[in-house]
């Protein structure tokens, strides 16, 4: 049995758009061959890295001009023959759709087989608690969270800054996730990147005190993870590994995993983070078979 990488941005030549290709080359700095791989090529890479399955972010981001709500469905259709190797994380842009369209796309993505939902505040330009009356009362966002609760889907919420040119980093403060945890106590929330680099202390404390908030460790360089989160062992039962591959600075999914496996923590703790915890929280597409 291998490992789980619960947060990647893998794209396939079968589904990539010109806009997404240009974005990946320009903003990620990813090699062209990395973002033009076929599904079979990716499966071979996962086999070589001893990775059982990966979570792939396939959420929309109109502000960045790279995807809309149908993208998650197209990715799911492309990987159907390898349903046990991929978990597709979809999403809808609450501040771009009507209430009716929000429900429509959530239903369509769920029927297709999404494993989780992503909310990316800096890329969507909204606070994760924007459904609150004092934060604008965005009903569509409340619908997303309630849908996730009703259908047993975890929600990834990006925290921390984004280096992408059109990102609005004021929305990256994890303190706004606290409202979501309180208002939706049965919702499993993954705080992606643990607030790195500006708000790690805030994210860490929320993970400690809120039972439904977990840490998604993606994008933090494994060699520096204990510098960023020196008390990681204290939240090891609530942490999951992710690489962010092939995002900025992560161009080798196997090397990133090996670096994490070699950090100065017990093998039992590391196994929780790269195997037990992500397997419990994020199910592959094959769960629908």
Automatic annotation (TrEMBL):
Superkingdom to which the source organism belongs? Archaea
Matching CDD domains:
metallo-dependent_hydrolases (cd01292)
Q: Which Pfam families does the entry mention?
A: Amidohydro_2
Record carries keyword Lyase: yes
Give the keywords, sorted.
Answer: Lyase
Q: Which GO terms describe its molecular function?
A: carboxy-lyase activity; hydrolase activity
**Amidohydrolase-related domain spans which residues?**
4-282
Task: From the Swiss-Prot or TrEMBL record, give the protein name.
Answer: Amidohydrolase 2
